[in-house]
What we know:
The structure holds two protein chains of two kinds.
Chain A: E1 3-14, E2 17-28, E3 32-36, H1 43-50, E4 58-63, H2 71-75, E5 77-80, H3 92-102, H4 108-117, H5 131-143, E6 149-153, H6 161-178, E7 181-186, H7 189-195, E8 198-203, E9 206-212, H8 213-219, E10 220-226, E11 237-244, E12 248-255, E13 265-268, H9 271-285, H10 291-294
Parallel strand pairs in A: 3-7, 3-8, 5-6, 6-7
Antiparallel strand pairs in A: 1-2, 1-4, 8-9, 10-12, 10-13, 11-12
Chain B: H1 2-36, H2 45-53, H3 57-66, H4 68-76, H5 79-82, H6 89-125, H7 132-135, H8 141-160, H9 163-185, E1 193-197, E2 200-204, E3 207-211, H10 213-216, E4 221-228, E5 235-241, H11 246-274
Antiparallel strand pairs in B: 1-5, 2-3, 4-5
Amino acid sequence: MIAALEAVGLSKRYGRRYALRGCDLVIPAGAVVGLVGPNGAGKTTLLHLALGLTTPNAGSVHVLGERPAGASHLARVGFVAQDTPTYAGLSVDDHLHLGRALNPTWDDHLARERIAAVQLDPTQKAERLSGGQRAQLALTLAIAKRPELLILDEPVAGLDPLARRQFAQSLMEIVAEHGVSVILSSHLLADLERLCDYLVILVASRVQLAGPVEELIASHHRLVGPRRDHYDLPAGQELIESSHSPRQSTLIVRSAGPIIDPRWQVEPLGLEDLVLAYLGRTSASGSARSLQEVSQ
Amino acid sequence: MIWLSWRQARASVQWAGGILLLAAVMWSVTGLQLRHSAAALDAFRLVQLINTAAIAVPALIGAFWGAPLVARELESGTHRLAWTQSVTPSRWLAGQMTVVGLLGLLLVGLATAGINWWSTPIDAAAGNIFTPSLFSVRGVVPLAYTVFAFALGATCGVLIRRTVPAMAATLSAFTIVRLAVTLWVRPHFATPITTSVRPSVVAANGVPTIDGSSITETGGWVLSDQITGAGSGLREVVASQPLDRFWTFQWLEGGLFIVAAAALIWLSFYWVRNRLG
């Protein structure tokens, strides 16, 4: 199987500051992949490198088995950039014209159908569109070039909850209809749970966790029991996070098999708590920058 | 690509075209009158002033068309939209530069042609087109200045990434380069011809005065004019570039600016490919 995105030792420096440093990562094709991490983890840089918007200082990145270079590669990948930029002075119609002029694989019928479906006025200038409408226009431009892979960089970060839900719905429809692979970066965990079937957690250029969402949920557990400072976990169980109150201890544990231990009450773990546990772990381990520092 | 460039440039091109059209009407009306009677010249001070102001047009094209070319996209983030269609950033930049650059060249070309046509009777009668103020609005150098200013503007936009600072940088850098070339480079394109004559001395109100007019009227560009010696050894030494070198100088200076523009264009392509995103 060809990976949607594969990075080997990928580094990008802006001046002396590394935005991405020695990143190794494989994102499978054929799935809706959530790329999660705090701000500054290198998500946007990784996606820009994947699109050839910028070139790496070291390492390599392959998208759909190709190095991102050249127009033929760009035609295979649709991109919705952060804050969904559009040309303020151009109308919705002008944007479709732009898409037609710049993409040999442009599907005008699909574009017009989508614009009508989300009730955008073709004569309206982009500057007069709401955030949600702009995001829909950007998504239309990205999908009407008929890409094999759709990359979205924080597409819903600036939207209100209703617009966010509508956008998520549009995206699900597109995935169902066109069978396109999706890479979606976000720090909004609730949206990921609804949309993604594969998750990659990236903190400070390092992949902390990657896998199908169902598997991740099934293999992580929360253990709650009376407070104890020493605990031995059997082989095959990995401690991800522990927290203690005066009377109670809570552990988050990764284990392939079920945990049967009368000393603990075992609870399932939601995706949001799971992600937070991994983000918190890196800050405690000291191997990476702390979450607070990173998110500034 | 051409469609997008044109769609973005359309409004400002229409404005520039409108101004040019207005100027064209003014040139044809007054130019024809001028050809009927040279005495009418005094009535056309305003037109002459406008023609002198044309010296600023390349700088304005650099600042208003060159500088925003990439900076505007970077500022609004739309480069992430434009450069991820099935067009590479280099192709996009090439398209933008070609369309907008050619429109700028066309504008300056037409304006220069208009000014030159209007001024033909004056140039023939008295004007010395080798003097710095006329040299830069005649011949081919206005086009070379335009290419350079446009490339300079685009490069400033790519490096500075903000529209207004890039425009300011373009205007100041272009002015400095133009002044430096005029003052320190252009005089050395060829060795000046030095002539030394005995100045005619005329008596003005009983005081002997040197009449320099006899020699400075040779035409061409006078670089220096000095009086040396005294008494019977009195000499007027004039260093000048004769008028027949006009076109050599035009092509040399034009070539210089085109080479500089090519270097800037290379830099902006390099930067867009490797440093942005």
